[in-house]
UniProtKB/TrEMBL annotation:
GO MF terms, alphabetically ordered: protein disulfide isomerase activity
UniProt cross-references to InterPro entries, sorted A to Z: Thioredoxin-like_sf (IPR036249), Thioredoxin_domain (IPR013766)
Single GO BP term: protein folding
Cellular-component GO terms for this entry: endoplasmic reticulum
Organism: Blepharisma stoltei
Thioredoxin domain: residues covered: 32-128
Protein name listed in UniProt: Thioredoxin domain-containing protein
Family listed: Belongs to the protein disulfide isomerase family.
Pfam families cross-referenced by the UniProt entry: Thioredoxin, Thioredoxin_6
Entry keywords, A to Z: Signal
Signal sequence range: 1-15
Amino acid sequence: MAALLFLLSLIPAFAYIKEGELYELIGPSIEDFQKEFHGELRVICFYVPFSSEYTRFSSAYFHAAKELAKQKLPLKLAKIDATNPKNAEYIKKYDVGGYPAIVYFPAEIDEFYHYAGDRRKEAFIASFKEKTLKLREFADTDAFDKYMSENGLHGLVLGVFQEFSGTKYEVFREAAKNLVHIYPFAIVKDKGEWFAKFDISEEGILILRAQFLIGPKDRAAIANHKLENSTTIEEWVKHNYHPHISYFTKETKASFDQSQAPFVMFLFNLDPAHPEEIKQNLLNFHESANPYYNANFKDRRFLFVLADKKEFNKGLEPIDLDKDKAIMLTVMRNDRFVLREYEIFNDNGKFLKLNVDAYIKGLETNSLIPYVKSETTDVKSENGIKILVGGEFEDKVVNSELNQIIFTYSKNDRLTQPTLQILEDVAFHYKDDHTLEFLKIDADLNELKGEYNKPHLPNIFLAHKENKRVPNRFVDADITKEKLIKFIEDELTPKKEDL
Ligand SMILES: *[C@@H]1O[C@H](CO)[C@@H](O)[C@H](O)[C@H]1NC(C)=O
């Protein structure tokens, strides 16, 4: 027992446990949770396990967490066992009385509030969702202008009202609640200046396009005065916020996922430290590329998006994206990149229209080669095992006429080294058999294809020369040299008899 406690105390404090969408916090990990998700609404429930209230309550809380996670709202739900002495300090700190008790912290705020609402799943969902709503408010038009000039890639959905009350205002808030995790929303109270600024005559919503993304056919601001109900507002915002070209980040990716059209991503160096450079690049881009992305909404076969290459560099490392203004065209379907290393600008900043033409043609005729993650290496073989990289898979596996043993691994997995050692012994055992080849592929650096791509690593596959796409996997978790040799013999012997 003492040894176990000792081991537990070695587990770093930030290693909190996650049960589905719920975080289980213990002692100081509460602090880490607060820090890590400070920008989101944090909800923490203190509970006494096995109490009858808790059983009913926890099911509602758990299912609410699951549902809310699906909606990708900026919030995190956690629970804390009130009977664990390690948590006593926090019970005091957050002034918790009866159980279960819920406290929450709005985004960016350190103050805590006690949740006093209904304890059914639907109530949790509605209430927590409401609490994530952050509506920016501009005191005057200067504050607004400043915001827009500092956010060249983000537009704004702005509600202009005479009073922050009334049916129109409520309907707007309702729509904002459902969309605020995708688009920035703000409200202003008009004393004459806002109606004048936007040349409108009544209360309504405006979509203000991101200034760097305004293409030649886009109006910088469009207004809607109807505000019928939240559904019609949501539709209108979704349709008009990104008219021709959008700004795309990993975070906003989810809001594009319903789209059937593939993405054409233009990867730019969007370093916020150099706004003038971004502006100049995008101006060049709009001037020359707008014939490609200006098709009517219904007729668009591709969604054109701009993205920061830094965000998408991971997975694209083998390709040199490091040039200053560098630009590359990629298309993405279900997370798969298809790409061409065409540049959009030459070294003098001149737009290379021919490259865009060639790329679009390639997309339309499906002739672009999918991108395969593949890290080249100078080492060809280690201890009798050849080194395979992602890009060589067709050539060296599918087209090979040998039987092959293929080891797929991640360097950091604790089973990798011991398994590799056994494999090397077995490779040595077969060193004189020239019909059998041993290969290994590092799954951290290379894409695994088809049947070779299994969620758990490491794996050993036997790929028969007749059927490379459907290999047999060695499944005994307790691997030994003898077992592996037996597996290979069993797999290959009947084939020898066939001859
Ligand atoms: C919202 O308004 C539209 C248009 O008037 C209508 O068709 C729709 O049924 C309304 N939806 C709700 C939920 O009231």
